[in-house]
Amino acid sequence: VGTLIGVYDVPAAHVAVTCVHSNTNPTAPYRGAGRPEATYVIERMLDEAARELGIDPAELRSRNMIASDAMPLKTALGLNYDCGAFVENQAAALKMADYAGFAARKAASKANGKLRGIGLANPIERAASPAPDFAEVRFSTDGTATVLMGTKSQGQGHETVYKQIVGERLGLDSEDVRVIDGDTDRVAFGMGTMGSRSTVIGGSALFYASEKIVEKAKLIAAHQLEASAEDLEFSGGVFRVAGTDREISLKDVAKASFAPAKLPKGMEPGLYETATFSPEQDTYPNGSHVCELEIDPDTGVVEMLGYWVVDDVGVMINPTIVKGQIHGGIAQGVGQVLMEQVAYDPESGQLLSGSFMDYAMPRADNFSQIEIASNEVPTKLNPLGVKGAGEAGTVGALPAVMNAIMNALSEVGVKNLDMPASPDRVWRAIRDAAN
Predict the structure, then answer these.
(1) Please, are residues 137 and 210 in contact by the beta-carbon 8 Å criterion?
(2) pLDDT per residue as tens digits for the range 384-396
(3) Who's near 388: CB < 8 A, 6+ residues apart?
């Protein structure tokens, strides 16, 4: 409900939600978990308003967006947007998509008997809701480290990201770091992986555990170098006495930590630290999506021609993984728009799409090239400046693709179409509009 007004400067808002019980299959949280639907509502309304007012949809949006310098801002629905560059995101996405040249491309499609449409959406979502999570950094006697995390990777690449955080903070090579996650026999506790929270909360806990490692290791390094801890500098995994060439690596400090004779008097042997992090509020990943497509009016088939995204997920620890997350999110959103549907027999209630032989899911040939650019606006709500990236693609894909479909169909008088926009439904909508 909170994101129903999107990235727009809406001074007052009231929402009423009608819930309907059904005897069909129950649902559970799915990538985006309510935010794609909320963004779909506001972004479809903006396109309808632009069409009725005779204003370009991009122009109507840019006139009404929250400005960067207006944040932090408490919205009319009670959310606290801490940062973002919404106007800049849209401008960059439109440039990538050559929005200005669309009219010429539309005319060329019309000459070939096709309907061409372009759709725009500016998603924002709540990610990494406040809840604690745990991290531990535990050095072994050989100077390598084990990282124990309360989150659980499901293929998102957490191990790589956590190694990068430890590597950057402690100067360790990835082969010197082992990652264990979600093992309740070995990890103190964890809240799991959901809501784009793993890097934001788990990664921040790991950052603070690494800070504690540096603090203790500095005392051991000072003892080894016969210097004051205040005179030591730490960079690239090495402690140095300022202004001299005397230094010792963190790996050697870790090895020394298990030898009581090499420690300051009274210090507990070993080098291992834990940390727990719980944010004060949600983060707000956001961005701008543009989709261009063609529809064959004789068959109702929708063909994606291009998809462009400018995404702000805060600081990207690993840009390749972020882009993979956005690709995957877009794929799930496009699947919902174009084909996915749980179908029941209206007379008996029998489930008709009971297996993946009957339930359509998108494949590679349903997509165009997807171009992604990033506009990093770091949040101050966690030490890493990250906002969460796992669901952002889905939140934007639903309205962007559907707005493109409706933009194309408006040429033949179609004013309303519900998902999924499968060929038979698109073809029937065109036929009904003609009649």
Answers:
(1) yes
(2) 999 999 998 999 9
(3) 127, 128, 195, 196, 197, 199, 200, 283, 285, 313, 314
Is the Cβ–Cβ distance between 288 and 122 less than 8 Å? yes
Residue given tokens 């171009």 in the structure block: 371
Q: pLDDT tens-digit profile of 228-283?
A: 999 999 999 999 999 999 999 999 999 999 999 999 999 999 999 999 999 999 99
The pTM assigned to this predicted structure is: 0.94
DSSP state of 68: G
Q: Which two tokens stand for residue 78?
A: 């009670």
Q: How many CB atoms sit inside 10 A of residue 182's CB?
A: 17
d(CA 200, CA 383): 9
Contact 220, 262 (CB under 8 A): yes
Q: Cis peptide before 57, with omega less than 30 degrees from 0?
A: no
Residue 270 carries which side chain, given as an amino acid letter? G
Burial 213-223 (b: 16+ CB within 10 A, else e): bbebbbbbbbb
